[in-house]
User: Which sequence fits this backbone?
């Protein structure tokens, strides 16, 4: 699985520190078949929202809220990620989220020739730099379990379920959380997710 995280298809930075795994893909005319990591540019998120609907708007908004809350609680992360000057999650979303400089990515299931989605492989290694922590966030219990059904992920991940919604693997720096939706991953649950992500750094210290 050499460099498998870097090669995954999705949106965002080519070598992201924050990798969010989602079980579906947007149907967007500007990139109908995404088979690589594609960084977004100013205006792309709003264009996807207009074409793909409110569900994707929620995904991007909750992602931006998560990063904004996380960096507000973690001074070191705030200094390391682009966008520290943003005064709101909305500004961060529009100017940085999933762009090449953001170190964030949204990773899709692989597409086989028969167009059936299959789980992606999670590589717990550090993108070649042991001094820079790489985090993996799996969106949804059902998708996490489908990923674990894959042999490579079974070997790579050892998830400890904290309840019906959250699981953690400190060694792989991986967390399972509810789907990025206002109700499923509410502001209170975003705070809990931030606490779990920060605990991963402490566990590795």
Assistant:
């Amino acid at each position: 699985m050499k460099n498998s995280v870097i090669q995954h298809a999705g949106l965002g930075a080519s070598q992201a520190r924050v990798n969010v795994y989602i079980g579906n893909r947007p149907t967007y005319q500007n990139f109908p078949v995404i088979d690589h990591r594609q960084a977004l540019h100013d205006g792309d998120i709003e264009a996807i929202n207009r074409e793909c609907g409110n569900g994707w708007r929620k995904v991007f908004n909750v992602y931006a809220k998560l990063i904004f809350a996380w960096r507000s609680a973690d001074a070191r992360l705030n200094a390391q990620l682009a966008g520290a000057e943003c005064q709101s999650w909305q500004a961060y979303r529009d100017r940085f989220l999933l762009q090449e400089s953001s170190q964030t990515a949204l990773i899709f299931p692989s597409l086989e020739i028969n167009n059936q989605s299959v789980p992606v492989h999670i590589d717990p290694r550090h993108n070649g730099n042991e001094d820079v922590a790489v985090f993996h966030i799996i969106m949804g219990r059902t998708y996490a379990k489908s990923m674990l059904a894959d042999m490579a992920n079974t070997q790579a991940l050892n998830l400890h379920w904290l309840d019906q919604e959250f699981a953690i693997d400190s060694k792989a720096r991986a967390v399972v959380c509810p789907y990025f939706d206002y109700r499923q991953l509410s502001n209170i649950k975003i705070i809990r997710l931030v606490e779990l992500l920060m605990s991963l750094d402490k566990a590795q210290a």
Observations:
- The chain has eight helices and ten strands.
- The longest helix spans residues 54-73.
- Helices lie at 4-7, 44-52, 54-73, 75-80, 89-95, 141-148, 151-156, 187-204.
- Residues 4-204 form one domain.
